[in-house]
Structures are given as structure tokens and as C-alpha cells.
Amino acid sequence: MGLICPQCGIEGEFRIRAGLELPPDGRSDEITLQASVCHGCGLFSVTVYEESRRGSLDQDSFDHYGYRLDGLEFERLVGLITACPRPDDRRCSCPTHRQLSRTDDQGIWRGLSAFRLGPYFNVFYRP
Ligand SMILES: [Zn+2]
Ligand SMILES: [Zn+2]
């Protein structure tokens, strides 16, 4: 299963370089933050996978989306993720996790507020 690059449309070159599991928020049971890059066109981005199991019993709903980043913001994101000693542990309390798992007054995740985000896009897969 290959991710399709939102910029050049090539499948399989858009890859996740680093990922970080984050605690659930008021909306999602699973949140994964990803630094994703296209080896075809050089697009840098932050992508987010959110999954909720709170809807109807047999229906998982998920959302996979992202924002373009410039090179400096992308390197900052990769640096933050790689500084975490346990990126697969959503209960990790390192400085990276504390910064990127921030929520607002409603308990909704706002971890991306730490970044200067470019345009929004949805992540598509070839089935
Ligand atoms: Zn591309
Ligand atoms: Zn951590």
C-alpha cells in the first residue's frame, strides 16, 4: 500500500520518515504525528493519522491529513521526534511529547500549533 504524494501524484515515493504516537484527545483514540517527505518531488510535510472508535460499534473512523512545511520547519519536526526516547509510547513524558501533545480548553489536540503550517491536504492511498 503506497501513499500518494499530494504534490506530484507519484505513489510510493511519499514516505514517513519519523513518527510519534500521541495520547488520545477529546475526539480521537489514536493520534500519530508523522514527518513525511516525497522522494519524487521533495515535498516536506507533517501528516497526522487520527482514529476514533467512539462512533457506532462496528465502524472505525479515521482521518489522515497533513500540511506542507518548508525545509526548516520539517527539519525542526524531525529533530523533535528523534529527540524522544520512546516515540511509540503515547504515555512518554519527554519534552517532545509534552510540546506536541498540547490540547486546548475543550481537550482537543493542538500540537501542530508549534509549527508554521503550509496548505492543508488529505493523504490518499492506492488500495
Ligand atoms: Zn511528490
Ligand atoms: Zn517522548
- Counting copies of identical and different chains, the oligomeric state is single chain
Structural class comes to alpha+beta
The secondary-structure element order is EEEEEHHEE
Question: Cofactors and ligands present?
Answer: zinc ion
Describe the protein in words.
The protein has 127 residues and is of the alpha+beta class. 15% of the residues lie in helices and 33% in strands. It contains two helices and seven strands, in the order E-E-E-E-E-H-H-E-E. The chain has helices spanning 71-83, 95-100; strands at residues 3-4, 14-22, 30-38, 44-52, 61-68, 120-122, 124-125. The protein has a five-stranded antiparallel sheet, covered by helices on one side. A two-stranded antiparallel ribbon has the order 1-7. The longest helix has 13 residues, at 71-83. The chain is globular. The N and C termini lie close together (6 Å).
Short recap of the structure:
The chain is an alpha+beta fold.
Which helices and strands occur, and which strands form pairs?
Elements: E1 3-4, E2 14-22, E3 30-38, E4 44-52, E5 61-68, H1 71-83, H2 95-100, E6 120-122, E7 124-125
Antiparallel strand pairs: 1-7, 2-3, 3-4, 4-5, 5-6
The chain binds zinc ion (ZN) (2 copies).
